[in-house]
């Protein structure tokens, strides 16, 4: 892997025992997109935070996004002119928003009003790999695979990992490095 890694967290933001937090502590050059104080439904603010993080880069970076951070990344890519600064993206367990989220999250109506829906369904301008969970209560694997196809992303089946978060039993997750290696292969093949 070359260059910095930009971490884009989900709606709950920075969680100490989340695999992204562990990954940030192990990699030499990490930029964490700081959306942690934002309202969960604030898509425009989250996109602005990602835009600011990318604007501060001096070399192309790899995005590692999880959950709603994947959707922020996809919306950002559809709106920005800075995608040349991204060498590729790992997109882990995105929600499909095809069914209501649990009570701790915004409603489908709130998400639609804030611009989360519809989820962009055009190819991403950089290589990407989507990690799909077989039993994610926030992302139906059939719908997540369809999103990955629309984005032109490679699909990696992760098995039964839930939503790939501490509530699903994942703090440190070596699979993140595997997805980064898969992405590197896609970047080299491009």
Textual characterization of the structure:
The chain is α/β, with parallel strands linked by helices and 190 residues long. It contains six helices and six strands, in the order E-H-E-H-E-H-E-H-E-H-E-H. It has helices at 19-26, 43-55, 68-79, 108-113, 141-151, 175-189; strands spanning 5-8, 30-32, 61-66, 86-92, 128-133, 154-159. It has a six-stranded parallel β-sheet with strand order 2-1-3-4-5-6, with helices on both faces. Helix 2 packs across helix 3. The longest helix is centred in the C-terminal third of the chain and has 15 residues, at 175-189. It is globular and about 40 Å long. The model has no long low-confidence stretch (mean pLDDT 93).
**How many strand units?**
6
Poorly predicted runs: none
Q: What percentage of amino acids are in beta strands?
A: 15-25%
Alpha-beta classification: alpha/beta
Cα-atom Rg, whole angstroms? 15 Å
Largest sheet: 6 strands, parallel
Biggest sheet strand line-up: 2-1-3-4-5-6
Q: What oligomerization state is this entry in?
A: single chain
Number of helices: 6
Query: How helix-rich are the residues, as a percent range?
Result: 25-40%
Order of helices and strands: EHEHEHEHEHEH
* Average of pLDDT: 93
| End-to-end Cα distance | 15 Å
What is the 3D form?
Answer: globular
Which SSEs are present, and which pair or pack?
Elements: E1 5-8, H1 19-26, E2 30-32, H2 43-55, E3 61-66, H3 68-79, E4 86-92, H4 108-113, E5 128-133, H5 141-151, E6 154-159, H6 175-189
Parallel strand pairs: 1-2, 1-3, 3-4, 4-5, 5-6
Helix pairs in contact: 2-3
